[in-house]
Fold this sequence. Notes:
The protein is an alpha/beta fold. It contains 16 helices and 18 strands. Helix 5 packs across helix 10 (287-298), helix 6 runs parallel beside helix 7 (227-238) and helix 12 (337-344) packs antiparallel against helix 13. The radius of gyration is 25 Å and the shape is elongated.
Amino acid sequence: MQSPRGVNYLVPIFFPRGVAVVGASRGNAGNRGPGGWLQSLKDAGQPNIYPVNPRADEIEGLPAYARLTDIPGPVDHVISAIPAAYVLDMLEDASAKGIRSIHLFTAGFAETGIADRLELQRQLKARATELGIRLIGPNCMGLYVPDGKVSFSQQLPTDSGPVAFFSQSGTNASDATYNGALRGLRFSKVVSFGNAIDVSAAELIEYAKQDPNTEVIGAYIEGMPDARDFFRALRSAAQVKPVALLKGGLLPSGGRATQSHTASLAGSGQIWAAAARQTNAVLVHNMQEMVDLLVGWRFGAVPAGPRIGLVVGGGGISVQGADDVEREGLQLPPLSEHTLKRLAEVTPVAGTGIRNPVDTMSLWDGQKVRPTLDAVAEDPSIDAIIVQVGMNWGVGFFGNEQLEARRKMIAEIAEARERHRIAISMVVPISIDQRHGQSNAELSRMISDSGLPLYYNIRDAARAMKRLLTWNTRRTERAQP
């Protein structure tokens, strides 16, 4: 299924003693976009960074070297930012230096569809195998491993977490890390692996299954030559850890795009859907849904059943939210008379409704949050709760002066989740208005910091909870003798 060297060979790749950037220059070393490798490594805390450029003595305050073999200290990993035509020569220097792995940011290989570039990729793979050097890519962003102090982009969190994400697309790898970080996700390993001529999706999935620092796995796949190996790895990993899968190129136009992007054959959508069902991986449709699922697994949004209690502050929101919950295949059962009596004691009569959805302003009253959540969570017809806070109106009421009230509300909701052992998803809407946007962004950060799962609208929260419920039900069924 995997390289004869086995997944254990990936361990030193993720934790290099030194990193060389071949092709670093003053023009790309410190910029804040793709190619700013030196700055990315500095931000990650990498202590041993070596620019390689025969035309420079110093780049970004670091001594520059003409060749890899000129570097005095140990180097385990290389980032290649040179043209494709020079990579084979660089490979020989890498072997002489004892390099273990090369990340090929370099593009211009099989994805071009040009015959001589296809041959160049074949030669590159064959020679790297002979030399015992692992290749990541070509045509990719490479590694983000906080504990290994390597990163493919700047200003990413330096603390690690239990989520692994593997992507043929560099953009999607960045999407997962940046947007996931905003919602509290922290990562053990993120790998953008492009054309995957050596380190493959199958090998990465198998590694994540065995990695004690990984609890949740996500992957974006366009296609691969080892589809059977990949499905074996997927089945094996999904038996022990949650796996979310985004497959690019399921439709004809997307299939053509994958061929030009990473030289991959897309494959049938029906085959991938069947494979996901058989392995109990969860197939998603876009990167937002991917992050939604990873957030749900990481922060405990797996519902015990399909019956949702919806708690919001606003009549129109409650009506639309109720439609969204049911549209995603979940239920909003009416609350019991006993629950309604409890809610009536802490809910203003005017402008509210408490039958489910629970439309109440009590969330913003520090003395009423707990009895409101307790009443809903203890209703025998409720399996999980969605709470929307943060509005796109009322800046004064929901502004920065309400920080203490927000902290109290979030703490009470987090405590209610633990006290009742019930899944709770939080919703804060995104606003393009600067005042509301800043206010809700701060509220979102506070929620993420508290360890609650955060979504940006009720329908997204409901969709994620429905998929998590289906995943958990299948997992339970498979565990039965």
